[in-house]
Structure formats: C-alpha cells, structure tokens
Amino acid sequence: MAMSESQEFRTRYPGYNVLDKWSSPDWDDQTREVVRHRLEDVPPVRFFTEHEARTLAAICERIVPQPDRDEALKIPIVPWIDEKLYEYKRDGYRYEELPPQRETWRLGLMGIDETSRALFDGKPFVELEPLSQDVVLHHMERGNAPGAVWEKMPASRFFKSVLSIMIVKIYYAHPRAWNEIGYAGPSSPRGHVRKWEGGRDPWEAHEEETDRVEQRGSRRL
Question: pTM of this prediction?
Fold first, then answer.
C-alpha cells in the first residue's frame, strides 16, 4: 500500500523547487495568487468530526505517506477535502451505487472503522499499526471488507473512485508535490513549445537518470 517508515523517498528531480519560478516569466500575477492561496490559506476543518478527521489523516498517511517531511512541511490533505464537503462542492456526477457525496464520506469513514474493529479486536483504524492499517485498506480495495456499511455501498467503489482518487488529487494540487514530479505549475503565460513525446523546454525541470537517483536519493522539499 505505502512505503515503510524506513524507506527514503527518491525523486527524479533532486534540487528542483517550482517556487523558483515565482518571479520568472513562467508565472503571471494570477498564477502567483493561486499558488499563494494553496500554500498559505489552508482552510479549517468544519465538516468532519474530530474522529473522522483523525481517521482520514491516518488513511492519507498510508495512501501518500510523507515520512521524510517535517510535520510543518507535510502537504495538508484533510482540510481541503473537508472544505469541499463543507461547501458542498459536488463533482457534477455520482456513482449509482453510492449515496450523495456527504453521506458517502460519512458512511465510508464509519465503514473503515467497522472493518478495522472486525479484523483487529475492536480497535478503530487510528489505533492500528501502519501494516495493519494497510490490511484494512487492502480489504476495501478487493471489495471483501467486513462491516455493515459495506452492505449499503460497495467498499471497493468507495476506496477506488472516491477516497483514493480524492486524496491523490488534493496531494498533487500542492506545489510541494509538483517538485517531486518536475511539474512547472500552470503554463500561463509562457506556455510550452516542445510538446512532442519526450520533448522538454529549457525552462522545465530536468529529469535525472534512474541509476543516479538511486545512488544518492533525495529528500523532498
């Protein structure tokens, strides 16, 4: 499910920091405002209960772990999901097997705790060791998670199409995650010239060869 706490994160873009583009021709004032908002205006948690927020935070640590980042530099995920639900920002569609968005999230987090308690002697998800948490999530992924909630909606659908995808989307909407994949942020106003496969403009991040990255590793920014 996730890398272990002892594994070192290695990026193909060591030393790359997308914020170096702040005053460059790559970004205009609108782009800078969007990036500043994502970095500084982290919303408060208003939809989730304290326990739900803790449960979701623990899940995020297994889906996109950040063990190499100091707590202050970890990419916040729960607050942005919470804001979407609090402000009822819907996607414009939903899966027929699932209830409306807010109910889906409440039931889903409740179901994860039900599965956790069924598999691990009554313990809620937040009290499990990381590898035991992975077991719970694997059961959900395979669609054979125990719990009354999953009789109302499919665990696999919630895990794959709602929970995981939302966590990953929020994670990679943050500039610190862009550093890991060499993403330069919104292309306005400069745009791209070398748009063919394998093409790279001079102002884009340079990808290091795999063997060099593996030899030295790289701590995330």
Answer: 0.86
